[in-house]
Design a protein that fits this description.
With 308 residues, the protein is of the alpha+beta class. It is built from seven helices and 19 strands.
Amino acid sequence: MDRRQALAELEAVFGSRLKRDEPLARHTSFRIGGPATLFVEVEAEREIPLIQAAAHALELPLFVLGGGTNLLVSDHGVRAVVVRLGRGFSGIEWRLDGERVRVVAGAAVPFKKLVTLSVERSLEGLEWAEGIPGTVGGGLLMNAGAFGGEIADVLVSVSGIDASGATVTVPREQLRFGYRYFDLPAGLIVTSVELELQPGETAAIRARCLAAKRKREERQPKGLPNAGSVFKNPPGQFAGRLLDAAGLRGFRYGQAMFSPRHANFIVNLGGARAVDVRELMREGQRRVREQFGVELEPEIRLVGEWHE
């Protein structure tokens, strides 16, 4: 299949769900990001191999975009076929397994929705995730966590479409996780995850969720676009405290600013560019390195083409 044929087939199958040069600022929580070469919303697993074949013919990589949180997309955009999983990947199935409950959640399920429904069923294991933005799939890819919990703690398996277009399920013991890190098997497009939760006392579960929500609200900026925590916490320390001690709380570059509320958040004051945010990140890393001898590692992912 040549490039012209590949594009024609994509247009025939996806119609208005396929867009050329789609600005990714429309699809990220930062409200920052240049255009994707192609942007397509997928509604069923059977459509994914079609996109894989077309991307191969077009000599473009595939990039799966979840809720658009935890990302900084280059002002130059992304030379790729950007795939967003649609409503066909937003189902949730509950299965009783002895005294525990297995939950199969589509990758496009909002994390907050999964937490809410788990609490309504008096299931514990996700209280730490109360208030985490984005989708279940996106949370998996960064091993989202907070307040002592993370996805890896409750994960049973991951299902998706591999590079050959086949449907596969990979058990937890074959997957590697770290702090805010998941080693995604090469070529795998995750379509759902299976988690294991356990019944608990409703009042206690709700209390833990409320405590997590309060902590999050106390620390995080409100009302301005951002991508969550900018840097990972170094071992035994907190990135926000180091950045604050380095004088970066409220420091700005262009229309991007380290939040006055919590220095480990960068907010978009309106019209911020990706280069503004990256310049702030570099300044934060430089000051913390020089003043404290600590190298801050980004938690947000830089995506796209970056020109010096």
